[in-house]
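Attaching the record inline, Q. Sequence:
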Amino acid sequence: MAQAMIQMEGVSKWFGSFQVLRDIDLEVARGERIVICGPSGSGKSTLIRCINRLEEHQQGRIVVGGVELTGNLKRIEAVRRDVGMVFQHFNLFPHLTVLENLVLGPVWVLGLPRRAAEEKAMHYLERVHIADQADKHPGQLSGGQQQRVAIARSLCMEPKVMLFDEPTSALDPEMVTEVLDVMVGLAEDAGMTMLCVTHEMGFARQVADRVIFMDQGRIVEQNTPEAFFDAPANERTRLFLSRILH
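Structure, as predicted:
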């Protein structure tokens, strides 16, 4: 795939003697939106954490935006500049205001002047519909608001790839929709490559170009949302969907 943003070839990873990823082959096109689902412990989060070297793979190759991820720190930094990540637990600095949380990366990593960084931060806070909370601290916000701040913080770095690691699983049910609505809006923007680990199957149907099902460290099945949900080919996929959709 000449235009692949992410290439994974024969990627394997172990935690001690436990193999969490087993010979993963995956190519993600520029601008493609992928949802990864599967049972707990199937390797979903580890897979996307390997893409920005939060986890180190032991076998195989990972190439992001033409840069192969190795132990070379300059390569890791180059990839991380292009890859934003939103975690399950927001990871905001509690002692900083919302605006200060967003300004930190552009100033210290990208070298933007403070005023330009603040303008960028306010732009993305407006994008996620939370600009009126800029002067508050994270502890003053709801979980859904904090997650939207975390998304805006990643966007401030203007990444080419956005990784979402179960971004709604720590939220109360009534807050899930507000975060998913923001993510749907992002997905509709041209050019944003997205990989999202989630059990929100409605989001997968609405947004994904491709749905990937993982089990026991392997990619078991991948297809368009229509084919994946309406006619899954693998018995393990059918069992998973029967449990999660009913």
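The radius of gyration is 18 Å. The mean pLDDT is 92.

More tomorrow.
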